[in-house]
Structures are given as C-alpha cells and as structure tokens.
Amino acid sequence: MTHPDSEEVETLVKDGVLQLLLEQSSDALVVVDVTGRVLAFNREAGLHFRMSRPERAEHGWLPGCVWMRADDASMSVEVPPLARALTGERVAESRWRVRRPDGTQLVMRASAMPLGTPEGLAAGALLRAREEAVPSGLDAVDSTRLLAEAGALLGAAFDEAAAPQLLRLLVPALGEAAVLYLGAPGEPPRPVAALHTDAQRHAMLEEVLRDYLLPPERVLPLFGLGQLERLHVTEAQLDAAARDATHARLLKGLGPCTYLGVPLVARERVIGTLALFRCDAARDFSAEEVRLAEEVARRTALSVDNAQLLQEAREAVRLRDEFLGIASHELKTPLTPLHLKVQLLQRQVDGLAAHQQPVSAERVSETLDVVQRQVRKLTTLVDNLLDVSRITAGRLRLEVEELDLASVAADILFRFAPSASQLQCELELHAPVPVMGRWDRLRLEQVVTNLLSNALKYGAGHPVRVVVESEGLTARVTVRDGGIGISAEDLPRIFERFERAVSDRHYGGLGLGLYITRQIVEAFGGTVRATSEPGQGSLFVLELPRGDIPEEWLVGHSAPEPSPV
Ligand code: ADP
C-alpha cells in the first residue's frame, strides 16, 4: 500500500469516498491528520472506542482511551500505535488492552501507519485494530506472575498497608474494580481497601463505601455463608439496593455488571471477602479467572490469619509476663508478715526459754492467728493457680450432689461476717426459700465466695446484698455492691484469664477469680454476667440449671423472713 498524501486524503474525506472505503472493512479503522483531528472512522471503530462523532485525538490518543501492552505481563500504559504512527513510525501489529471511556476494557490486535506527504513527513495516520476474542482476561503468564507478586506482597503475615497494592495487582487484570473486606467472625466486615480503574469512579466507590456501607445484617448473610458468589447486577437491582437518590446515582455510576465475591476462609472461619466487579456486561468471569481469584483469596486469608495468630501470641506472652509479675508480688505479700511473725515468735520463745519462763499461750495464739490468716491467703492463691491449670488442661471434675443453694450462701455470708464488718460493709442476704439443685458443693462455694469477696473488696464501706431465688429449673444468685463499679469497656474482659480492671497498686489480686468462676459456672451449664456503673457499684448475676431434680423441689416452700447477717 502506497501512502496517500494529505491532500488526497482530504479530497477522499470530502467526497465521502474514504468513509465508504473504511466501511468495507471488518476491522476498526481510524484516520487522523497530523494535528490529531479525526478525519474519519468506521462503524467498528465507533463501537470499539465508544466514538459517536469525529472528535480530536490529541497527539494520537483516542478520546478517553488508555492503551496498555497486553503481550507481556507488565500491563504498563504505553504510547498507543496511532500516536507512534504520527511520528512517522510504521507500527507492526501487536496485542493491546484498551480501556475505554466507560471504564470497560477489551483486548485488540492493532497496527498503525503514517500517511505520508510528498516530502516523506507524516501528514496523518491510520489505525487498524480488531478485537481479539480472549477466553479470559488473563493468560497463563499473567496468572503465574500475579500469584507470585501477590505472594511476595502478602508475605508471611498480612499488613493492612499492603491491601491497596494487592488490589492494584487484581485491577484491571481481574476486573475493573475490587474491594477487600475483612472482619473477625461474627463482626460486621469492613472494607480495608478499594480500587476502581477509573479515577472518577474510584472516588464514587470510596464515597459509597464511606457513606453507604451496607448494614451488617445485609452483608453478614452473604459473608457468613463462606461461599463463592457470582451475580449479574441489573439497574433494577441497584435501584432496589440504593438507600436514597444519591446512593442510586453512585451505584449506577459505578455500573458494575458482574460481581464475583470470593470468601476469605481460614481455619474454617470466614474472615473476609474479596469482591471483584466487572463493568463489561459481555465479559463474564471465566472459570480460570474465578480459580485465580480464589487462589488470591486463599493466600490473603492465610496471611491475614497468620497476622492475627502472631498478634494473639504476642498478646498472650505479654499477659503471661504481666501475670508472672503480679503473681510473684501477690505470693510474696502474705509471706512477709508470715515470716516476721514466725521470727518474732521464735525470738520470744528463745528469750523466755533462756530465762526459764513459761511462754504465754495468749501471745502464741495471737501470733498463730496471723500466721494462719496468711497461710490461708497463700493457699487460696496457690489453689487458684492450680485451678487455672486444671481448667486449661480440661481437668475440672465435678462431684454432683443434692444441695440447697440458699443455705450454701447463708454459710458463706456467715463466714464473711467478720471481714465485712472490718471493711464496714453491711451484709444482707435475701433467701426466703430453699433452692434445691444438683451441684458440686466445693465448686459452688468457690463461685459464691469469689463474687462475695470481690463485692467486699471493691465495695468497701458500702452495703452488699445477696439474693438467692429460683425460677422453674433455674437457680439465681445476685450479688450487688455499691462500690467502685466497672467501666463499660472493661466489663467484657473481666471474666477473662489474668484480666483486671483496677491497678495492682490499689487492689491486690491475680485477675483469676472471675475467670475461674465463669469456667465453673459454665461447667454447671449456667451463666454469670455483670452490669455496672463506675462509681455506682456492680451487680453480678449467676444463673444455674438446677439439674435433674425431683418435681416436688419445684413447688414453693414456706418463705422464712429475709435474714440480715
Ligand atoms: P482480682 O483478683 O483482680 O479481683 P477477679 O477475676 O476476681 O480478679 O476480677 C477481675 C477484675 O474485675 C478485678 O480486677 C476488678 O477490676 C473487676 N471486678 C470484679 N468484681 C468487681 C466488683 N464487685 N466491683 C468492681 N470491680 C470488680
């Protein structure tokens, strides 16, 4: 083909002959002059490049189209064939991925040639392109490379800062837009990164995610299922999903036609979703693309899970170290007076013996009282530690017998009476009728003791009221104090191991009492919960199933008067 010169082209355009010639071809053809003015284009070109009238192709860039090389895996934006032809280069046919003004993409084989002037300078250029039917948007090289890059990016443990880069690998290779959602099981998922190929639509996507995040109940059914989802989204569906007119406009502006939601699953829990959107209705996700998205999601889930495990392990080590510090301090506290008292006793006995005088039984008894109190404290601490290791190893054994919870509580309150008066706490028990059930006596005592000793410890100077009652097959103990209370943010963690909501400078303790309490209560099949207001006191409610008890225990007993202790 010889190069027609610019005047010849102009004449051909004017006469409409060029148009006629271009329409003969099944390829997309575009002719521009040296200034980038589109002189003519055929129907195919109009369809492919979304052109409805001859516009300007500044410097050989067709309006709104981005050209990326598709014959290597780099996907870099490059100078398109038409622009190169305008500089006089004859551009041989090669593979290109073209992103069109509406955000959709297609793969094309394109070549271009300069239209010469008699002096040999380019007076214009001709672009020839034809769509390549690709079974999937990715070839084997792309997928391998994408997975390798994703693997390198994710590393062993996921860092949220890498999420946008991860999406950059997937967009536009797997879709025009992607959103990565993460959320612990049972929590509403939150978008950690979002990307759209088109800058304007990217802003819209961010707006939708920021202002119109789906309410958890709408997202969770999909999220919780942990199954791959593939939807063709219609305008009517977008209208139905939109919460207001702005939302509808944004959703339609994004124009997702096909949605692919791949769950992120780790250790059989759904921890997120990788959402991919494809705007070109004609291009569904191929089986190969779905497989690739699943593989990326699998690797992401693994890396997210690793990061979570690492975080948990670090936290566990931190808690253990903190606990060891507190435990040594707590174990040492009773040892000091114990040591002093024994030393003192020893000196007294030695001194008196030296003068052959009898030792005063009263003095010895007083000292031994202190010794015994401290030994009891140490025993409780060590017992608690042993209980925790028993619970952790799953060796908590219950010996069930028939008991009256009301009298168990009364006994414990009686035992606590001296320390309550020392702490200036008025102790009140309301247990009008026996509450029979089948429980382990020692463990039941331990639970009530823990709740009561906490009420006295954190409620010193205020009254403490204990109520024992039953409702059908459930027995209930409530312990109310008027002490320091617990803040809303601390409430959920006080039943955890080693967790404390107070400073160890003000209150001694290992942070194990409530943990052990909850474990025992759960072993009984019951529940224990707390409500509190800082500065207003706390209410602990213990509910226990009464077990397999005879019917007559369920009927009311004569109610004795409430007994203040
Ligand atoms: P501790 O040995 O620290 O008392 P617990 O497991 O018994 O350990 O309690 C855990 C934490 O819960 C305590 O450190 C305290 O912050 C809070 N707590 C428990 N009971 C009460 C209460 N009645 N009033 C206020 N805070 C309480």
Automatic annotation (TrEMBL):
Top EC category: transferase
Keyword Lipid metabolism part of the UniProt annotation: no
Family matches, as CDD domains: HATPase, HisKA
Keywords in alphabetical order: Kinase, Phosphoprotein, Transferase, Two-component regulatory system
Matching Pfam families: GAF, HATPase_c, HisKA
Enzyme Commission (EC) number: 2.7.13.3
Annotated GO MF terms: phosphorelay sensor kinase activity
Annotated ranges, domain Histidine kinase: 326-548
Catalytic activity: ATP + protein L-histidine = ADP + protein N-phospho-L-histidine
Name of the protein this chain belongs to: histidine kinase
Superkingdom: Bacteria
